[in-house]
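Batch job 17 of 40 flagged for manual review because the log was empty.
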Amino acid sequence: MKTASLSSALIISLVVVGCGPTPRAASITPVETLPATTAEVARKDLVGYSFFDGKVFAPPGTQSDVLSPYDLPVDKVFVSVGQRVGKGAPLVRLTMPGTKESLTMAEANRTSARAAYNAAVSGHSDRVTSAQSALKEARAAEAAARQDVANGGSSDLESATQARMDAERELSAAVAERDANTWAERQALGIADEYVADARSGANQGMLRAPISGTVVKVEAKAGNPATARQLLVSIVNVDKVQIQGTVPPSMAKEVQKGSKVLIALDGPNSDPFDGTVTDISVLPPSAGQTSPGYLAVIAFDNHKGVVLPGVKIKRLGLRMGSVQDALVVPAGAIAKNKAGTLVTYVKDGNNWMERPVETGLSDGALVQIKSGVKEGDVVRVQSTTVAL
């Protein structure tokens, strides 16, 4: 249904949719191939985290790039970067030809949009087709099992029913995936249909309007300059709907639950960590080398300032595991494993480095608690390392 706010829209939207050296007896000498600094064992209050990977996720409909449909001059630009706009708000006005020419262009645009949509659906239908075939087979198998049981047979009807239910869920997931991957083309086709209707009614076709509500994050259009077909004019993101997806390893399954607080660190030298909350958990298939499945955590957070946009990289996510006061701590780079797989650190003793087995505790990604093996004031060797938070 065509809404009043979009009655004169001319928009094509696209969703743009992380060892130490070999010991010799009791000590070793420095190795040049291991760039190292030193640090003193100190006491400090420490908050510990366990870390896992994540990425920014923009659900379908949360981001749109408004493109110029044709080679036409830009008459006026109505928005600027950082401005919040509602769906249907004017963005850019183009200088348009007469009614007859507008209708011809509109119909050509709709033909192109329909072809693009059909191609997108075809390109993302393999999983749907496979799921449909699997569901047909599962239903036939369930029916055969039910008939066999009714006739006194020993078919496993419960397993057949479960297989049919699994096939139904897979088909639903496949359709949802296809629809998400073709959202941009479907939206573009709907708007092209609106443009044809408006052209036939003689309505003004020069106005490009916002296809979604959100924040303007890019403006390429400039009044007085020509715009070429499919040139990006304005990008809009609904920053309030942007989410973070975390890949939770099996070892953390009991800790990461709905409502869990997560520390989020973006990839960048000036990015301060901030808090998020797990709002949903789903099961992932086991990854290579694992027998247990992992989990996908959807993490919501306050993004009113729009600092997290599609394309922003997540350094890592941290789950608070506890805190300790007045703990002995060393930099994370001071901990290594020897050949036996024992955690060790290397303590300076005169001109030599002594290997010391250590028992570690909490870590915040930069510092590690040492429960035993060193004492306050000891000088330890710190290998070059990447500080997470």
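Reviewer: the log was empty due to a logging misconfiguration, but the result itself is present. The chain has four helices and 23 strands. Unflagging and moving on to job 18.
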